[in-house]
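[job 4471] stage=fold_predict status=RUNNING
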Amino acid sequence: MPKRKKLETVLPVIPLRGLMVFPHMVLHFDVGRERSVAALEACMLQDQTIFLVAQRDIDTDDPGMDDLYTMGTIAKIKQVLNMPGETLRVLAEGIERAKMLDLVRGDTFSFANIAVLPGEDQTSDEIVVLSRMVKQSFEDFIHKSGRLSPETTMNILEISLPDKLADVMGANLLTELEDRQKLLEQETVGKRLEMLYNVLNKESQLAEIEAKIQGKLRESLDKGQKDYYLREQIRVIQEELGDTDSAEQDELKKKAEQLPLNDEAKQKIDKELERLSRMAPGSPDITVSRNWIDWVLDLPWGKYTEDDLDLTRARKVLNEDHYAMERVKERIIEYIAVLNMKKRTTGNDAMKGPILCFVGPPGVGKTSIVKSIAKATGRKFVQMSLGGVRDEAEIRGHRRTYVGAIPGRIISGMKQAGTMNPLFLFDEIDKMSSDFKGDPASAMLEVLDGEQNFAFRDHYLDIPFDLSRVMFVTTANSMETIPAPLLDRMEIIEVPSYTEEEKLHIAQLHLLKKQTAEHGLPARSVRLSDAVMKTLIENYTREAGVRTLSRTIAKVVRKASVDMLEKGQKTVTVSRKLLESYLGAPKYIREDTEKQPMTGIVNGLAFTTVGGEILQIECTVMPGTGQLQLTGQLGDVMKESARTAYSWARAHHAEYGIPEDFYKNSDVHIHVPEGAVPKDGPSAGVTMTCAIVSALSGRKVRQDFAMTGEVTLRGRVLPIGALKEKLLAAYRAGIREILIPLENKKDLEDIPAHVLSCFRIHTVTDVKENLDAVLLPAEN
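[job 4471] inference complete, writing structure tokens
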């Protein structure tokens, strides 16, 4: 046989303590040493290939060339998980064996010059015969010892490649590191198969002798003597070997008996404990079985925290941490009151937890109010972010048949909470997506259904677990991307944008104090009057929530701290002039509300995920062939609204002095700034109708009006949503004349009184009323 040529390469190295990896073998191991972590990070930045080699002495913390075996395995990193204590759990798959020629110590990690041993001819008669002999010996050994499960045995016997057969069989049979390393170091398939054949024959003989001894003992001892003798024999053997597995299994069984498990969980854990006791030491299935048992026993079966039912304290906690948000606070107070009444009447406050969904723009405090709710009710708090989650296994877990399977985030969260009735937050539920791995939104249907979640079944555990006492709260910026069946299971509570007065209170009562403390300054050392704070809000922020406001205040505090140190001041009172020196020229300047009437430009009101906005819809007419052009990144619904408005204008041309044949020789172009921002929805229908009629008739439009409403072909004005956010946008823009659909009049109750008092609200049922209000008479 010609000598094989070795292919040399360079790879990062991770030394393994107490274990090694065969090719074709997948296993988990933990990485904690700094140089090993650095080597892992280096390989993840390249092609995820690394060289794994066993240490000779496991007590050596920084091994050199002499401390490592020369033969190791090139492996592919499949998964890396962050574990507590700055440890990484790595899932790796062995690819091929390689010999280390030299170990080079780098600044942060070591890398090795290795010689890759290429594959050899596995079809020779000698190799084929050896493979058959090894399989026959393996079957004989398993028949006599019963050491591996039937499924594992069948999988090994079905392997056709001799080199893979040798590696997989060695990984499952050899328990001592020296024996495993010796097999790895055999450079040819034939030598590996010969070694395995000798080991199997020896183990088969020992198993046969053991069976004969057991047969003789069985014949000579009655049942009582046999039981006593076997127990004593096991005890003595365990003492000699220092084996504590049996004691651990007894402890697990005792713990399982003390827990209030449901019937199915009791049956399955008893069966798994019995199976664990029969497994041979060193079997890979032991880790899988033990992990499952640990997960089941670590769950908070029957543990409940007592709800704090003091309404006065709950109101105080909610008001201390958050300003406004009255609907959310009212719903939580109602829930606590119901628990209180139920405890008084029945003596038991056990009831299904509510499933709430807080919908509102970013930065309005949806996530933080949930933490305050947990504090007010005295419940443990668990948070799971659903943004970008696209794998169903994140929710339900992986089935145990997969390598490295773990429970889903729901069960993990319950274990983390340590109680059966925590407050569980699903953040950004509208940001979930789906792909070939499944639809997590569909998996959430069972979790968020009060009629089903009393028996939630995780794929990994495969036993029912009661989630009915959990208070589930979800947050979202928009309901449009939440599937209808999921939306139907939740109680929707809208969290609206803040008014400028509300932002002023939040800034003075919460944000300024928070930023002063976080920047290490004494309380009240940085002061802003209400007038200066209002200038900061109006001229340097434009948002529905208060995140940008918080960052801007933080910038002011930082600038003030510099002045305090350089000038030796103990306090800084920020004036308007000082504010501008800190933050620069104002970013947003409120335009004069007294605008000149213009042709083809109408103020519309829109709602986006960041709150209400003013849309100045522009329309112009030019010679052409009757085309309607729409620009500004409009969605399908908004385009249909524009076509509806165009058709209405064409049908009523005579009433507004529009040329009868304009649709033949004139093009109409509608643009909705800003062009880079996508827009959609039907609520701009009346605005586009007014813009088209103004442009075609040449009549100017009053710019002190703003409007919203969906329009039909008959000119009816239909109701819209998010009226509060839209009116707040008009309030911020200084527009005081508002046209809204008549059916939205009931929604005015939600508008703060000080905001509503600034408007003159006109309710309309027909688009002609909008035109009569905003169109000026034609100029002669």
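[job 4471] summary: Residues 1-5 have pLDDT under 50 and may be disordered.
[job 4471] exit 0
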